[in-house]
Specification:
40% of the residues lie in helices and 28% in strands. The chain is α+β, with helices and mostly antiparallel strands. The chain folds into two domains: 3-192, no CATH class; 194-283, no CATH class. The strands form four sheets. Strands 1, 2, 3, 4, 5, 6, 7, 8 and 9 form a nine-stranded antiparallel sheet that branches. The protein has a two-stranded antiparallel sheet with strand order 10-11. A two-stranded antiparallel ribbon has the order 12-13. Strand 1 (3-12) and strand 2 form a beta hairpin. Helix 2 packs antiparallel against helix 3 and helix 6 crosses helix 9. It is found in: Cytoplasm, Nucleoid. This is Nucleoid-associated protein YejK.
């Protein structure tokens, strides 16, 4: 993960009366193993956060996209770019946060891709062990407390990709006003809701499994393939590509799942961002006994399927079409 440029500015907010002020760094950070490890930890923490995905709004008045373009055209150096960013974020700290923090900005490569990641970081108090084996106070960066964070896929933005959601930014449920204000500063236009898109994809997959009337073992294998791929993409902060996913779900019919999505009009974009929380909640309940085999996705429990624990009964409200036809024929 080669780091091209990195810097840390401080945004101070001492009390409720004084405005937040930027204390700029005099220059970029020097390369070090500690910096590499910090970036790795920052990426992991960022990918675990609830985020919005989208693109720069062409109609925005925000200055960041313009500054970024000048930076990539070598008309603005990295320090100047991040100064502008810090000064744009300072009013958000003033209006929405009880304290300031350190703004870390890193321009780096990951494989063949190039990313710009930024995060407002805070400290937490802890303890360490001194040289004399005594307990000593220790301040550490709290990467999980990332009130503001954003990540730009520079290559995808520069290429003018029509489908790739190249910009993501934090959107914690408890700070809607802050998230909206941050999006405005970034000049971001939210085009995809990761949680909703992931739920829709899983619904499409459940429908596909039902329509294909697959054996339980095959169904489980395809579920594992989907979850493994989606989880891996989420860990890397990358969107899922429906055509690539379709190939993994069914190697014998690599376009079958993709065609199912397109023909059924689920409204999914060719590339969608995975949501870790939604993926973790998705699993299949299975059981087999006395000639009866039952399998269904967890999100159907309480809706299409109900479990009556008192009488130990499973109630299926929406009988699969193929099974319904068989039952009617038998009658």
């Amino acid at each position: 993960m080669p780091i091209l440029h990195s810097i840390i500015h401080r945004i101070d907010k001492r009390d409720g009366e004084s405005p937040a002020r930027v204390v700029p760094a005099s220059g970029e950070l020097e390369a070090s193993a500690a910096l590499d490890e910090l970036l790795a930890g920052l990426n992991d923490a960022y990918h675990a956060k609830a985020k919005s995905w989208g693109r720069f709004n062409d109609d925005t008045q925000a200055s960041l996209p313009g500054h970024l373009k000048r930076y990539l055209d070598d008309e603005l150096d990295f320090t100047e770019l991040t100064h502008e960013l810090a000064h744009a974020i300072a009013p958000l700290v003033d209006d929405h946060l009880p304290l300031g923090g350190h703004l870390l900005v890193v321009d780096h490569r990951q494989g063949e891709a190039r990313y710009l990641i930024m995060a407002l970081l805070h400290h937490r108090e802890g303890f360490g062990i001194g040289e004399q084996l005594e307990i000593v106070p220790s301040r550490q960066l709290n990467l999980s407390q990332m009130t503001l964070g954003a990540r730009l896929d520079i290559g995808q933005w520069h290429s003018g990709s029509a489908s790739h959601p190249y910009l993501s930014y934090t959107r914690d449920r408890g700070g809607r006003k802050l998230a909206d204000a941050f999006a405005e500063v970034l000049g971001a236009s939210e085009s995809l809701d990761a949680s909703q898109e992931t739920r829709t994809l899983l619904k499409a997959f459940s429908d596909y499994v039902e329509n294909e009337d697959l054996p339980e073992e095959t169904s489980r294998e395809k579920t594992d393939a989907l979850i493994d791929y989606a989880s891996d993409q989420a860990s890397r902060g990358e969107p899922m590509t429906l055509e690539e996913l379709s190939e993994l779900v069914d190697e014998q019919q690599p376009k079958a799942f993709y065609e199912h999505i397109r023909n059924s009009d689920y409204g999914l974009a060719p590339e969608i961002p995975p949501d870790k929380r939604t993926l973790k909640a998705f699993k299949r309940f299975t059981g087999r006994a006395a000639g009866v085999s039952i399998s269904f996705d967890s999100h159907l429990l309480g809706a299409a399927v109900e479990y009556d624990e008192e009488n130990d009964r499973l109630i299926i409200k929406q009988v699969p079409t193929g099974l319904r036809k068989q039952l009617r024929k038998e009658e």
